[in-house]
Hints:
This protein is mainly β. The chain contains six helices and 31 strands. A six-stranded mixed β-sheet has the order 23-24-25-31-30-27, with no helix packed on it. Strands 26-29-28 form a three-stranded antiparallel β-sheet, with no helix packed on it. The relative contact order is 0.07.
Amino acid sequence: xxxxxxxxxxxxxxxxxxxxxxxxxxxxxxxxxxxxxxxxxxxxxxxxxxxxxxxxxxxxxxxxxxxxxxxxxxxxxxxxxxxxxxxxxxxxxxxxxxxxxxxxxxxxxxxxxxxxxxxxxxxxxxxxxxxxxxxxxxxxxxxxxxxxxxxxxxxxxxxxxxxxxxxxxxxxxxxxxxxxxxxxxxxxxxxxxxxxxxxxxxxxxxxxxxxxxxxxxxxxxxxxxxxxxxxxxxxxxxxxxxxxxxxxxxxxxxxxxxxxxxxxxxxxxxxxxxxxxxxxxxxxxxxxxxxxxxxxxxxxxxxxxxxxxxxxxxxxxxxxxxxxxxxxxxxxxxxxxxxxxxxxxxxxxxxxxxxxxxxxxxxxxxxxxxxxxxxxxxxxxxxxxxxxxxxxxxxxxxxxxxxxxxxxxxxxxxxxxxxxxxxxxxxxxxxxxxxxxxxxxxxxxxxxxxxxx
Length: 453
């Protein structure tokens, strides 16, 4: 009689469940539970099965809602009838025996599982049908629990906020960032989360309220070795003059300006941290930071004696005798020696010798006019001719007559110094009938400096 009555009540429940649309609510399961996609509910994890040697010292493992207990082997477990029951497999339920006092009650519709999970909404089942599994837990099978995924496409399930029903009737996460249903600002990046989303600022920005503001990195964490410039969303490093950014774009390396160009200094470039300087050789001084200028030692300090004359040249000086005349010549004016006509020794010698000095730079371009010779006394009805009498054995010079009374000494080969040349330039004078003949010599001392400046 009781069995017949139970079957009738079960039939009524099944008919009512077909007429009522089932709803399933899904949330993220708490620790100790896992989601059952078939039954659309959170189910307890049996740690006693999956945890090796869960209990030590001869204790027995007893699975519990959201965890497990380690109890003596003789312990009996009584489940309070106010708590919902768990179900076991058909093999476990076939025993139909209990080892302790048990009581059972129906599971309330949309009941909450321990740990905050949810089960499917279903009608309550009344009746004494109870089963016990191992560890003396009392459980009841809920006839309304789904055993498989409903095949009816019109079957609707109720998903939590941030989830939607899939084609397989499973609640799946909504990607608000892809679907465009987020409310992130244009200067923010949407990051999808399970059941929700978040808005983050771009790199180099930080969130202040609802807005993303630029971080002033140069003040907050200046990593630049020398200069830091803040830009929107980031920063850049720059170096002081004379330095350049290294490969890490943070540190600065010295620029060797002397290697970048050979025209920075007239003589020698010296690299220094962040800069360079120019040096000049002995006998020169630095002007305008890069140019070398000859020092006139004759105007400053020199070692010439009283009877000597100081002659300055590019890069140095020389001391020459104030009276260069040698017998039978006598000094008549500065640097001019005359051989008297009354002296018999003067008949075969030039009438006068004039001493001149000049300085030229090393490696001077050629051809180049360097010195002009000109007659100081002009006689009527005479002809003047000019020649290089001595000092031109290697053909470095050429004397070009420019007028009846003058000529130009031309440098035709480039000269390197330091070196001294003594060149005798002769002017021969004869009258038109050939009865008068005389000559004069200009002894030119040419000093070639050691440098081209």
